[in-house]
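Onboarding guide, step 5: your first structure request.
Type a short instruction followed by the sequence, for example:

Predict the 3D structure of this protein.
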Amino acid sequence: MIVATEFTAVEVVDGQQRLTTFVILLKAIEKALASTGDENRIKQELHEQLVKSDDHSLALLQTNHDSTHIFVDYIREGILRKDAGETAADKNLIDAATECEAFVEDWKKSASLIELVALLRNRLSMIYHELTDESAVYRVFEVLNSRGLDVRWIDKFKSQLMGLIFLQTNQSAEPQGRCRAFGRTFIGCLGLEMLLETRPSGSLAL
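The system replies with structure tokens like these:
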């Protein structure tokens, strides 16, 4: 088998919370798997998928606002520093990891972790749609968020604002770089706000 040594970074426009929860769940499963037999083989496979074997131990998923490295340390080392949370986002990550580990322990009481991994691999699906035209990102994001439901005014405002900012940069590299940086901060703040408002207590939202 030829294993890729070069990777491409993509920015996730929609589905950040689901992807983050899913990656945390995979890490919780990896931690709980035994270091012998078939479970050890799957344990190694999960680790290789979550942490790339390069000089920087690049994590499969990286967040924009992980200044305390709570998320990346958990994915790389399996260490959950519960006392390191400084922001609401940090505490949400800690809560997610804690809940995922509790979920995995509950699962082990009635079924094997190998069955759980098989379920995630074979029954869970996601749609990956890559855009090459950055000016279309915000329109697509608004459409993806509608799904026949009312779109919140803040989501509409964000989509319109970011689309207009991008169009006003005249396609030059420096303004686009500032636009992307602003967009990551703006979307991150809105995503955190929505997470705090909509995330049910004690739920595992995939």
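Each response can be followed by summary notes, for example: The first helix runs from residue 16 to 32.
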